[in-house]
Write a structure and sequence with these properties.
Layout (H helix, E strand, L loop, with lengths): L7 H5 L11 H6 L10 H62 L5 H11 L6 E9 L2 E9 L14 H97 L1
Antiparallel strand pairs: 1-2
Length: 255
């Protein structure tokens, strides 16, 4: 599932960035009322804005649900990978200790320095990018060519060969662990930011727009009732004036 937030919702609701919700006391009844002019044009504008905010809230809520669904499996995968790497590290160091015990003094250190000094075939780490709900993630992959050991096989024990091969395989697990950790950090940041926007819409903007719409409707209804009562009063005065005029004309004709 892919839902991009860069095109529509980011432009429409870019002003909500950093728009954190207030505390529970302010949510329950101490919201600030929007300053609006109680006229029909303002009512239409607020209704359009309210409909837009509702659509944006639904989009961001769907994005938040999708991010959480993607985050939880990655978090479990990272936990398992972390446990496996930490568990394997002591077993990886054991052949080095055995090689150091079975080799002359300083032979293992010299061999490792010779391996590190071979710059002719450097380790190449390639990065590829992929997306989860518009969050750009990175995949790491190590590429190397098989080369000779680079140290004297006569001065070192056989355990050093096993340890070096195991260390090369261990590097891939380290890269996978780094990839997963980077992914869950980015997803956690995006989840937090999306949740702040959803809360800002749900607890601040939408209630304030509803209150403003109700306020304008109440003012317009009050003005309409006042206008109707004034028209009825004018009609009553005109009716009385006509009755008085017809009565006066009748009295003059009889006289």
């Amino acid at each position: 599932m892919r839902l991009s937030s860069g095109g529509g919702s980011a432009n429409l609701f870019g002003g909500l960035r950093g728009f954190a919700p207030r505390n529970d006391r302010q949510r329950k009844g101490q919201r600030m009322r929007l300053k609006v002019n109680p006229n029909r044009m303002e009512l239409l504008r607020l209704r359009r804005r309210y409909a837009l905010a509702l659509r944006g809230h639904k989009m961001l809520k769907d994005k938040l649900d999708g991010l959480v669904k993607e985050f939880l499996p990655l978090a479990r995968q990272y936990r398992d990978a972390r446990i496996a790497v930490d568990k394997e590290l002591p077993q990886l160091l054991r052949p080095f200790l055995l090689a150091r015990m079975g080799s002359p003094r300083g032979a293992v250190e010299t061999a490792l320095e010779q391996v590190g000094a071979r710059r002719a075939v450097p380790l190449q780490i390639t990065t590829t990018h992929w997306r989860i709900l518009n969050v750009v993630l990175t995949r790491l992959e190590a590429k190397r060519r098989k080369t000779p050991a680079g140290y004297s096989l006569l001065d070192t024990a056989d355990e050093l060969d096993t340890a070096v091969v195991a260390l090369r395989d261990y590097l891939n697990k380290i890269l996978t662990l780094a990839e997963l950790e980077h992914a869950i950090r980015l997803l956690a940041r995006e989840v937090e930011e999306t949740r702040r926007r959803v809360n800002a819409l749900e607890y601040i903007l939408l209630p304030e727009l509803r209150d403003a719409i109700k306020f304008i409707k109440a003012k317009l209804d009050e003005a309409e009732r006042f206008h109707i009562s004034r028209l009825m009063k004018i009609k009553e005065i005109l009716t009385r004036g006509k009755s008085f005029s017809s009565g006066s004309e009748g009295n003059l004709s009889q006289g």
